[in-house]
Amino acid sequence: MRDLVADEAERLRFIEQKAREVSRLFGYREVITPLVEHYELLAAKVGEDNRKRMYVFDDLGGRKVALRPEFTASIARLVATKMQSFPRPLRLFSVGSLYRYDEPQFGRYREFWQANYELFGSSKPEADAEILALTDSLLEEIGLRGYYFKVGHVGILRSILSHDGIAEDQQNSIMQLLDKKQYEDVLEATKKAGSPKSSLDTLDSLFETKGNDSETVTAEIGEIVKDYPEASKAARNLSEILGLLKAGSVEANFVIEAGFARGLEYYTGMVFEIYASGMDIAVGGGGRYDKLIELFSGGQVPAVGVAPGIDRLSLALQKQESSLSTIEKVVEPENRILVVAVDGSMLGEAFKVASRLRKESIVTVELETMGRSVSKALSDADRRGITHAVIVGSREMKEKKVVLRDMSERTQETIAIEQLLAKFGKQG
Hints:
The chain is α+β, with helices and mostly antiparallel strands. The chain has helices at 7-26, 39-43, 48-52, 72-80, 125-142, 154-163, 168-179, 183-192, 197-207, 214-224, 229-247, 310-319, 324-331, 347-360, 374-383, 394-397, 417-424; strands at residues 29-30, 36-38, 56-58, 64-67, 90-99, 111-120, 148-153, 210-211, 253-257, 270-275, 284-288, 303-308, 336-341, 364-367, 388-392, 401-406, 411-416.
């Protein structure tokens, strides 16, 4: 777990701000769920690897609880209970910190931040396409470059396993191996579970099927699984989703991998992860989960969602240094003013000028609080990127004026306070 300071915190808040803007743009309403939930809720479908990494403890009431390792289970509980009667489709947004006991390394933290978008109530391919388009819009908004989507469909893989009579718990174990790209182990586990050679050959062919020409790859997948009716249906679904994105002029780079799966057990359909240049780990991911609400007695409610990783997106932007200027323009107001009192007798007036500037302007206003002389205060201001200094002296204040210094131009003028407010005011 980390302390985020200065630039790190600003990058995180910048991405969070953009995530909220995109949520409003697409009609997603924010919800806030608890950081601590019942263990059984969070552990239900999070996957064996994540279950091992959860922070679990007994509270003073003897309840087994845990820190949330992801958002979806909590959001699903909310939809199944308090939001059961809300009209569909239901579009929800959330953002905050999550907790898993990972080994600390680049891009992996025990406390990490995510944004989260979930669409409930639609099983149509246009819902999946919307989530992908929304994610692409967010990545564009934050200025990320060189990213691509890796897309698959676990419905294709699970349909083949179900066709062979493989139980769900065994399927979950196989999906965990697929998530780790242990393809030989997948084939061995599938063979032990009772799959015939024809299914093993089909899976092996799927693992080799990938590319960024969506029409060609989905056609190849359809041909490979033509003897499996449900898998064929899932392949058509993937083709429809990608076709909608193409028709809608979503021009992101999509790489389709027929053997791609994610570690969370609740996925039932299309799944995806986002990768960016300079990063060898995913910066976000999501997919369709149509059976999770049923676990909380909320009936059959289809759903699809995405969780962009704010920490990882921040790291990606940090590596793409040219994007920092975009962040600074959003996070930092264009002008930063330091108000300096000439001496102690002018501190009250300096406070008053600073307060009025903050109230009536759109700039950042700092007050000199170190007791420095004017020259030392200006020297420090220059070093810290202050754009203007307002010097408050007794002689000028008698005429309701101050000295305004432009730090970059090295020029200054005596100006009336009302003119100062007009210069940096909201209409200035």
